[in-house]
Amino acid sequence: MRQKIVAGNWKMNNDLKESLKLISEVANMVTDEVSNDAVVIVSAPFTNIYALDQWKTGSSAVDKIKLAGQNCCWEESGAYTGEVSAKMLKSIGADYVILGHSERRQYFAESNSQLAKKVDLALKHELIPIFCVGETLQEREQGIHFDVIKSQLKEGLYHLIKSVFKTVVIAYEPVWAIGTGLTATPEQAQEVHAYIRQLIAEGYDEETAESVSILYGGSCNPSNAASLFSQKDIDGGLIGGASLKSRDFTDIIKTFN
Ligand code: 3PY
Questions:
Q1: Which of 45, 134, 177, 225 is 20 to 30 A from 234, alpha carbon to alpha carbon?
Q2: Which helix (H) or strand (E) holds 18?
Q3: pLDDT value at position 235?
Q4: Catalytic choice (101, 125, 145, 193)
C-alpha cells in the first residue's frame, strides 16, 4: 500500500503568531476528526518551522503532523546570502522539503540540474523531497506536457539509485492550475499520474513505480479532493490556498477517512 499524504504548502503566508494559531487549530481538528493514516505535512516559511516544531512536541498531533521546508539550497554551506541549507532545515524539525515548485522554477529560475543537487542534499540530511513537476498552459496547448514532465523527472531524480528513489514523494502540479482557481479534472490528473508511474516503471521497475506516492497539486480544495484522491494513481495532495484555512485543510485530510 502506498502512503497517503496531504501536504499543506503555506507559501509566503503566516507570520509566527498566525502560524502557531493555524497549526494549533489543525492539530485539534485532526486529533478529533481524522481517523485515517494519511501523513499530514505542513510546509511553512523557514522562519516559523522551529517554533512549530517546538509547539508540536507538546501536542497530541506530535506524530501525525510533519513539517516541511518549501525549498533548500543546492550547496551544503558557504557564501550564499539569503539561502537556507538542507542541514539547517533538518536541525529545526523539518522532515520533508518541497523542491521544484513551479513558483520556484518561474520566479527563481530553478533548473532541473540545480534541483538534482537540492534533491541530493535533502536526502543526505534525511529530508524527504516532495519533488514537483508540471507543465504550463502553453506547453499543454502545444501537446508537449508529457515531454516536459519526463524531462523534469529524468533530470531531477533519475540519478538516484532505486532504494533511494523509492523514498521520494512526487507532486504533479499543472502550472495552469496554480493560484488560478482552475483544477485539472480528475481524469486529466489521473492521466498524468499514470504516465509518471509508467515512466518510473520504465526507468526503474514496476515495484518501484507502485511504491512511490504521487500527489496532485493545483487549486485542490474540499469540494474536489474526493474526486481527485479516488483516482487510482493519486495518493493525496499538495494543497495551496485551502491549507491556510484549518477547516478546509482538515476536510481535505478527512477525504481519506
Ligand atoms: C496550489 O495549490 O496553488 C499550489 O501551488 C500547491 O503547492
A1: 45
A2: helix 16-33
A3: 98
A4: 101
